[in-house]
Amino acid sequence: MSRLFTFTGGAAGAWSVVSLSGVVGESLPAAPRLDIAGGEAASTASVAWRLRGIVSNQRYVTRVENDALVAKQVALGRPSSDRAALIPIRKSAAWWALPQDERRAVLERSRHIELGLKHLPAVARRLHHCRDLGDGEPFDFLTLFDYAESDAAAFEDLVAALRATEEWRYVDREVDVRLAR
Amino acid sequence: MSRLFTFTGGAAGAWSVVSLSGVVGESLPAAPRLDIAGGEAASTASVAWRLRGIVSNQRYVTRVENDALVAKQVALGRPSSDRAALIPIRKSAAWWALPQDERRAVLERSRHIELGLKHLPAVARRLHHCRDLGDGEPFDFLTLFDYAESDAAAFEDLVAALRATEEWRYVDREVDVRLAR
Question: pTM score, two decimals?
Answer without folding.
Answer: 0.96
